[in-house]
Write a structure and sequence with these properties.
Elements (H helix, E strand, L loop, with lengths): L2 H28 L17 E3 L5 E3 L7 E7 L7 H14 L6 E7 L7 H10 L7 E4 L3 H11 L4 E3 L8 E3 L2 E5 L5 E6 L3 H16 L3
């Protein structure tokens, strides 16, 4: 190899090696190995409420599961149908996996006793072995929403379609009961991110 050949060979070798490193980095990123860890936004405190059948539902039922929580009420004509449709979509897209729950919590317990929640679940195609609808006395619900999930709920007597103002977010909770994200149910991109992040948590060792 002449001196001129060597001068051409080494830059070419460096370029080839650099290209290989970049390709490897892209492959690793595509596999999700360089994704940022999900934030840790605080633990949901233990609670005991009632499900759509009227049976007590302690939060310990969710221990060891990844779960998604939304906040709604059955007479809502505005945001709540969107939230329920999103939860139904998650029910379908997670159907092939195990270790998850969907949790819909009414913010209007005075109008949403267990029987009303059971009917609502049937009307919206909920598979209640994995998707539960929860209620309790109003102070307990308010404390769970505001102190447990750090979200707002307020009355609005001027709004017929939405007499209660509440969060449009779906919360993602990990197996240890810690909130790992809030996702805007009115945003398609956020819902894709929620599904991806839920699957990430489900893929982690139990």
């Amino acid at each position: 190899m002449t001196a001129r050949d060597r001068s051409l060979f080494f830059p070419a070798a460096i370029i080839a090696a650099t290209a290989a490193i970049i390709a490897s980095f892209i492959t690793v990123r595509e596999r999700g190995q360089h994704e940022e860890p999900l934030p840790r936004l605080g633990g949901v405190p233990a609670f005991i409420v009632y499900d759509q059948t009227g049976a007590p539902f302690p939060s310990s039922r969710l221990d060891g599961s990844v779960w998604l929580a939304d906040f709604f009420f059955t007479r809502c004509q505005g945001l709540c149908p969107v939230l329920t449709d999103r939860m139904h979509d998650m029910q379908d897209k997670l159907a092939g996996k195990t270790g998850w729950f969907l949790v819909s919590i009414t913010v209007d317990p005075a109008h949403d006793p267990p029987g009303a929640l059971e009917q609502y679940a049937k009307e919206h195609g909920a598979k209640t072995d994995r998707w539960v609808f929860l209620t309790a006395e109003e102070p307990s619900i308010r404390a769970l929403v505001t102190q447990g999930f750090h979200l707002a709920v307020e009355k609005d007597s001027t709004n017929v379609a939405e007499p209660l103002l509440h969060s449009q977010s779906i919360a993602l909770v990990d197996r240890g009961g810690e909130i790992r994200g809030y996702y805007n149910a009115t945003d398609d991109k956020a819902m894709k991110t929620l599904l991806r992040d839920a699957k990430r948590l489900l893929a982690e060792p139990a």
